Amino acid sequence: MIKSSEWFRRAAGHAAMTALLASPLVGAAAAQEAPQAPVAAPDARAIIADARRIMAPRGIEENYAVEIGGIKQWVSVRGRDSRNPILLFIHGGPATTEMPVSWLYQSSWEDYFTVVQWDQRGAGKSWTANEDPAAIAEGISIERMTQDGVELVDYLRKKYDKRKIFVLGHSWGTVIGLNVALRHPDWLHAYIGMGQVINGQENEELGYAFALREARRTKNAQAIKELEAIAPYPNPSAPTFFEQVLTQRKWVIYFGGLTAGRSDFSYDTNARLLAPEYSDADLAAARYAGLSLVALIPGLTQLDYRKVHRLDTPLFIVAGRRDFETPSALAADWFSSVQAPYKRLFWFEHSAHMMQLEQPGKLLMHLVNDVRPIAARAGDVAPGDAPGVD
């Protein structure tokens, strides 16, 4: 475990990376500098909050902090009928929270699920909820954050009287999500991996190869120069490894490996400024996302889920055909060999890594038509309003 003083010292040295990275294995925003002091538009934020209000008589609309892993961690719980199944969304990054952009796409989900967004330790509202950053520092590890996920799933089951829930992991969140599914398959209706991390080393290699290939194809001299300068990549033992990761992510994003057809991530970072649930202090917490990077990336580069040959809960993989943040070929190969009680792989042909924003309608259809019927067969749905319900 990294001591808290060393943790902060190392993180401070890489503060600029937080504003530049959007990745399954690393930091926060994207290929551009985030505002130094982001400030939301209060009127727009209030308008969005009012438009999203859940008025249904059986609806649920809650935002609160719960003690998980010894610290306060923040959740948003939203749905139009509390009889529907719970779907826990585990965000990526690390520390790239989903709650402040969920208003872009989540409303339709709330007709069919009670959707829980969770700001993990060290991220977003869970950062601002805790007065002692050192307490957060000591808990930033794959194992501790997996246990946070386990505790949260158990908490949700008990609080909302559900025997099972759905867990959807995105990007870095697939590490926590798959670990939870492996440890407690009996707690889940199914596990959904979106931008699934499979092998940390190969993830980096394939992303790098994509960026260099595109740089050469487009004759981008600056990209070629910067990418060739970090070869061989990845090299986690290199003193400049974090800077090398920054370079790789910068060009993967630029060539559309994060969001197909886009060279930056500004549409996402700008949307966060309108988040109804977030204060300006919550938005500013994105500047500390690099702290999670420092603590987690050594373990992430060593991950290898190819050793997992069986999952004892239904499995869904959501894969962007153009994803080179978590290259989908790795997830597809693993999917073909892993055993599960039931499994489906969904290709998103026009998406890279951000399927919930790139093809939101297609994702909704799969969640409603393919995922939710598992809960329907278990009697864990509001009656009469979706496939799988009589």
From TrEMBL:
<keyword id="KW-0031">Aminopeptidase</keyword>
<dbReference type="InterPro" id="IPR029058">
    <property type="entry name" value="AB_hydrolase_fold"/>
</dbReference>
<protein>
    <recommendedName>
        <fullName>Proline iminopeptidase</fullName>
        <ecNumber>3.4.11.5</ecNumber>
    </recommendedName>
</protein>
<dbReference type="GO" id="GO:0005737">
    <property type="term" value="C:cytoplasm"/>
</dbReference>
<dbReference type="GO" id="GO:0006508">
    <property type="term" value="P:proteolysis"/>
</dbReference>
<feature type="signal peptide">
    <location>
        <begin position="1"/>
        <end position="28"/>
    </location>
</feature>
<keyword id="KW-0963">Cytoplasm</keyword>
<dbReference type="InterPro" id="IPR002410">
    <property type="entry name" value="Peptidase_S33"/>
</dbReference>
<dbReference type="Pfam" id="PF00561">
    <property type="entry name" value="Abhydrolase_1"/>
</dbReference>
<feature type="domain" description="AB hydrolase-1">
    <location>
        <begin position="85"/>
        <end position="359"/>
    </location>
</feature>
<comment type="similarity">
    <text>Belongs to the peptidase S33 family.</text>
</comment>
<keyword id="KW-0645">Protease</keyword>
<dbReference type="InterPro" id="IPR000073">
    <property type="entry name" value="AB_hydrolase_1"/>
</dbReference>
<keyword id="KW-0378">Hydrolase</keyword>
<dbReference type="GO" id="GO:0004177">
    <property type="term" value="F:aminopeptidase activity"/>
</dbReference>
<dbReference type="InterPro" id="IPR005944">
    <property type="entry name" value="Pro_iminopeptidase"/>
</dbReference>
<keyword id="KW-0732">Signal</keyword>
